[in-house]
Structures are given as structure tokens and as C-alpha cells.
Amino acid sequence: MQAPLTIQPIGDEIAILWDDRTETYFPMEILRAASPSAENQGERDLLGKQIGGSDQKHFPGVRVTGWETVGGYAIQFRFSDGHNTGLFSYQYLRDLWDHLQKAGI
């Protein structure tokens, strides 16, 4: 999957135009909740035991304050609550978009 052609904030959403001309729109609060970071999601040890993560699922008022592309495969968003450790792979974002569409969001 190629890097997005453009990324821009529009109101409370992040709009991404992909190389196949698909446009996706992500509410900023949902992006924060869906961060794939170990801080947010936790991680598993060698025995498969869940370590860390957060039970917080809602981030009212949190905004995306910036972003950068990482290694030609991901976007690292910076959020107004200081969170910035999640790497959103392009595939993860496309899958998240599909999930949001199916959920009617």
C-alpha cells in the first residue's frame, strides 16, 4: 500500500486521500481510542499474558495536533492529550475505515 497523497484536518476529523483516490475521514477522538500503541492496547509477554494497556475507550475533546509518516508504511499522530506513540500502518487505517463504515460512523 502506498503512502497517502494528502492528510489534512477538517473540523474534528482527519481526512486522508489515498493513492487509489479513496477518501477516508476519521473522527479525531476515534483515532485516539484506536491507537495501536502498547500504552493504549497493551502487549503480550512470551507466554501470551496481557501486560499493560488502558481501559479508557473514550477521549472526549482530544484533537490531533500533528503527524508524520514513518518508514513509508505508517502515520504517527500526535494528540492534544500528549499521546504520540501509536504507529498507524496504512493497512490498519484502511481496516479501521472499513470497520467504521460497517458500524455507520
Outline the low-pLDDT stretches: none
Total number of distinct structural domains: 1
Q: How many distinct helices?
A: 3
Q: Main β-sheet, in a few words?
A: 3 strands, antiparallel
Q: What is the averaged pLDDT score?
A: 91
Shape: globular
- End-to-end separation in angstroms reads 24 Å
Instruction: Give the percentage of residues in beta strands.
Output: 25-35%
- How many whole angstroms does the radius of gyration measure? 14 Å
Kindly report the spatial arrangement of strands forming the biggest sheet.
1-2-3
Secondary-structure arrangement, i.e. CATH architecture:
2-Layer Sandwich
What structural class do the secondary elements suggest? alpha+beta
**CATH structural class:** Alpha Beta
Percentage of residues assigned to helices: 10-25%
> What sequence of helices (H) and strands (E) makes up the elements?
EEEHHEEEEEH
What is the name of the CATH topology?
NE0471 N-terminal domain-like
β-strand number: 8
